[in-house]
Amino acid sequence: MNLLLAGQLFSFSLKVTAGLVLLAGWRRYRRNSLLLWSLFFLSSSLSIVSELLGFNLGVPLFQAIGVSFLAGGVVSLLDEEAVGFPIHSLRLAALTLPFLVSVYIVLYAKVVPDPKPIYLSYGVAGIFYAFAGVVLWGVRRFYPRSGTLLSAIITLHGIHKMDYPFLRPVEWFAPIGFTLGATLNALEVIAFIHVVLSERFRNIVEVEKPEVVKKGVFIVSPDRFKAYVEALSDFPVLAFARRSDFPERWEVHLLTTVEGPGNIGPTQLHRIIERTRSYLAEAHRENVTGVVVIEGLEYLMMYNDFRSVLKFLATLADYIALYGGMLVLVLDEKSFDERQLKTLRQVLNVGEGK
């Protein structure tokens, strides 16, 4: 067995194994990012099969499909972690990606004596592969080591794939290229598994339930909330607030118009809902009462009308009821009129907090 074939078989086995492991993880945690990444590995394995069988069209086709799943998984992870992608970064990507693809195509046509469109499409997919790695950099706040490592490996792997159209026809380089690709595949799988097995990805660790934790929706004043913070200091609370000085165990997302890792804009209510759903679902699977805190309703009311905020809170209350969690609304009741407070309590079925 030559080195090229060995590298192909190793990469194939690795991708199929990783795909099945992540698929099993998706069945347990039901996170969309896991499902898409599983499909990414399985699609990529079909690209290798295509090359082994001489089905040249399948090589770039399955690579492109795989990269689509990879990018979709990255975006899903950002959404699950409520990490917004800065507008200026999106603008930069929109301005540069089409230009980079065009330059890449022109360069390939000029440098390679006998250019092949099939090889070229494989390389173009590598550009978006690397782009997915750069986008993944946004989760470094939540996954300092594993997220940074995965982002770097995916980016490097994408860059390596970009040399495919230029060097694949070079017979002596093919074994080296596949060996390098196999090494990056192995590192990639390790980094993916490291992220997926982290306590952060699974959201909840087993902890003792504080007495203050009760199922339902509760409205507490800012003064009373101080006692909640102290009682829940060692509990993995999910909080959306205007400040960040909360216990270290808490996952805090700032409500602000300033862009930053984990920050959520006041009009991005859907991101709060999605992160809350993911958190509560995992807490429920781990038999833990998930606690969600929203401090800053007055701020949200500055950017949304009362009806929109009420619908948003009603959706959160539905998830709280579905997964048996606790929603704490920190609210100065003087900020709302009597009619709004009555409606709020009725729609949310507010309980009496301690």
From TrEMBL:
Pfam families in alphabetical order: DUF835
Keywords assigned by UniProt, alphabetized: Membrane, Transmembrane, Transmembrane helix
Residue intervals of the DUF835 domain: 226-347
InterPro entries: DUF835 (IPR008553)
Transmembrane segments: 34-54, 61-78, 90-107, 119-139, 172-197, 309-331
This protein's name: DUF835 domain-containing protein
